[in-house]
Amino acid sequence: MKSIIVGTAGHIDHGKTSLVKALTGIDADRLQEEKRRGITIDLGFAHMNLSTADGDTLRLGFVDVPGHERFIRNMLAGIGGIDLVLLVIAADESIKPQTREHFDILQLLGVQRGITVLTKSDAVDAETLDVVKLEVEEFLRGTFLESPKSPIIAVSSLTGAGLEELKRAMAAMAEKAYIRDPQAIARLPIDRVFTMKGFGTVVTGTLVAGTIQREQELEIFPTGRWVRVRGLQVHGQASDAAVAGQRTAVNLTGASTEDLSRGKTLAPPAIFQPTRRADVQLHLLPSAPRALKDRVRVHFHSYTMETVAEVSLLGTKQIVLGQKAFARLKLPETALLLPGDRFIIRQFSPLVTIGGGVVLDVAPMKRGSALLDFLTIMSSGTDPAILQARIARRRASGISMTALIAETGWAREKVEALAGAAVRQESILRIDNMLVDGTIAKLLQNELIGAVEQFHKQNPLAQGIGREQLREQKRISAEIFLALLDALMRSKKLEAAGELVRLPGRGVVLKDDEAESKKKIEDAFAAAGLKVPALQEVIAGLKVDKVRAQKIVTLLLRDKVLIKISDELVFHRSALDGLRRSLAVYKSKSTKIDVAKFKELTGVSRKYAIPLLEYLDRERVTRRVGDAREIL
Questions:
Q1: Where are the extended beta strands (E) located within 240-323?
Q2: Which one, of 262, 263, 245, lies nearest residue 47 by Cα?
Q3: Can you tell me the distance from the alpha carbon of 327 to that of 337, in angstroms, rounded to the nearest whole number?
Q4: Is residue 558 within 8 Å of 463, Cβ to Cβ?
Q5: Hey, is 553 helix, strand or coil?
Q6: Angle of CA points 561, 567, 568, to nearest 5°
Q7: What is the C-alpha to C-alpha distance for residues 375 and 278, in angstroms, rounded to an integer?
Q8: pLDDT of 246-302, one tens digit each?
């Protein structure tokens, strides 16, 4: 069953709540003060099912918003997640100030579908109704509600006139509405928080993306508190799951009403990072009182969140009326924002809606010549271009899949698909969980080759440059460095001898029997693990003489293929690397180890254990504390 959220908009006392009640049978005014004063103060909710012309069923959730200018902040808390709007205009009053402000907000939020409803049609004669229709058509010309693409329907909530026509139009419009992705990462902006007897803490909101299920763990943003979904209701009915586009009530365990409030958001844990900075594209309304200058403070609204933001303009000193520009918003506290989120800004004082826009980036880069180009791609580029730009801006550092998901808001499946296509086209290089721009990867490889060439020129007698020295010289992360170096060695542009990196053919040339002996020595120590043989025993079994054998051993020690930890003991590098890994695993159980435990862990005798522990102390892998070692 397709679920659609329908929002109302319009001036106070134009009959929005009466219209919702006439359609659904539900009075969306839930507060006693609203009933006493006869005006909507806060958000109201209702629901209904409609049948399409094909016989399918649509589930419509209504968000009824207040029309008074004093309650715009409440209106903004509910209008952000709608799929279809009913712009309500009373036939006996026509277009009023809040009609205009609400409609500006709808356009700034990117609402694409709606119906204009002329309420109180029973209060005017046919001639007046025709005049109002003409006024409304002129007002809406050139917008997403332009007639006849979007119908204008006259109704009376009192007599029921026009309601059936409106329902048919809603069904037709809702059937064509964009379906929110249930596979996306779930986000539920909270608009109500209360306690229900026998259940505990309950929050409600419009599920703007993804799916929430019973017993699922969620995180409260921006506080970071984890909670569990005890129960779900969709449009007043218990459900095992809620999907994007549904009004959802969530019964939570792990938090009280003091931990929650309107403006916070529920999302799966450990995926997103709240931010205090966001780069945006900002549109200033033609009706704004004045141009928007740099460093001005505004009221910022996105979904149910409201805060104050400082607008730092990018590439310009002011935005003139009706124009767009890039800007960086600075918030006083962290908030969960994602690219694609729409927002509204209101003048700090007096309060009036002056503009809005769309979030482009929540992990802003340093200002510079590349920033505006990057934001241009974020605002109008395709998904592959956006992915490429996000990877490229990290240059030699690359970016992890996890970080990409956090800063785009895209589901892992989408990021994996886009990255896979880019890897096949060789526009990016994938290294386990890291992604590096392909052009930058090739540039880095050329720089590595150049650095090795330069080292050979400056050190003609040296066999090569140390791996770590080369990595630190180019300031590349270990993970990316190893992948780039491996690719260069496979293509025979560089070669490695233990810890040394060199150009092909720059190493020591060994005779056949010497190369064979070198391999035998290395293999003997590699196979022995930590229970190494005596070096003289290995040398004695070689075909070469003792002098040449000693030179081969010196070569292996210099290249750190073999490592001497005492006068009598030599180990293969791989065995010591494995020992480090074993200690890292052991550390998860205990941070201290004595000689007995070490012998048990490694399977070696005291003859080997003591020198190995002293070696680990020197390497700062362990530190002696009394009779035991602390694993660092």
A1: 241-243, 247-253, 265-267, 275-284, 292-293, 296-302, 305-314, 318-319
A2: 245
A3: 15
A4: yes
A5: helix
A6: 80
A7: 11
A8: 999 999 999 999 999 999 999 999 999 999 999 999 999 999 999 999 999 999 999
Separation between Cα atoms, residue 304 and residue 73, nearest integer Å: 9
**Side-chain-side CA neighbours of residue 218 (13 Å):** 32
Give the angle 126-129-133 at the CA atoms, nearest 5°.
140
Q: How far apart are CA 369 and CA 374, in angstroms?
A: 9
What's the distance, Cα to Cα, between the start and end of the chain in Å?
57
Dist. CA 608–CA 74, nearest whole Å: 73
Label residue 38 left, alpha or beta by phi (over 0 means left) and psi (-120 to 50 means alpha).
left
The residue type found at 249 is: A
Looking at residue 55, what is its pLDDT?
Answer: 77
Closest CA to 306 of 264, 275, 356, 351: 264
Structure token digits, residue 314: 């990018």
Question: pLDDT means per 10 residues in the chain (632 residues)?
Answer: 88 90 84 63 85 83 79 81 93 93 92 94 93 95 92 94 94 84 92 89 93 96 95 90 93 93 95 95 95 95 95 95 96 96 93 94 90 95 95 91 94 94 93 91 93 84 81 86 90 85 74 81 88 84 81 80 87 90 86 90 90 91 89 86
Q: Report the pLDDT value the prediction gives residue 307, as an integer from 0 to 100.
A: 95
What's the chain's length in residues? 632
Residues 449 and 487: their CA atoms lie apart, in Å, by: 12
Phi first, then psi, for residue 62 (nearest 5°) are -105, 135
Cβ atoms within 10 Å, residue 369: 6
The label of the residue with tokens 């356009």 reads: 107
Quickly list DSSP for 414-473: HHHHHHHHHHHTTSEEEETTEEEEHHHHHHHHHHHHHHHHHHHHH-TTSS-EEHHHHHHH
C-beta separation of 304 from 191 below 8 A: yes
559 vs 463: CA distance, rounded Å: 9
Q: Are strands 114-119 and 152-154 parallel, antiparallel or unpaired?
A: parallel
Q: What is the largest CA-CA distance in the chain?
A: 117
pLDDT tens digits, residue range 433-474?
899 999 999 999 999 999 999 988 887 656 788 888 898 888
Residue located via tokens 């005890």: 230
Q: How far apart are CA 470 and CA 207, in angstroms?
A: 51
Q: Residue 50 has which token pair?
A: 């409609």
622 burial (CB, 10 Å; 0-12 / 13-18 / 19+) is buried
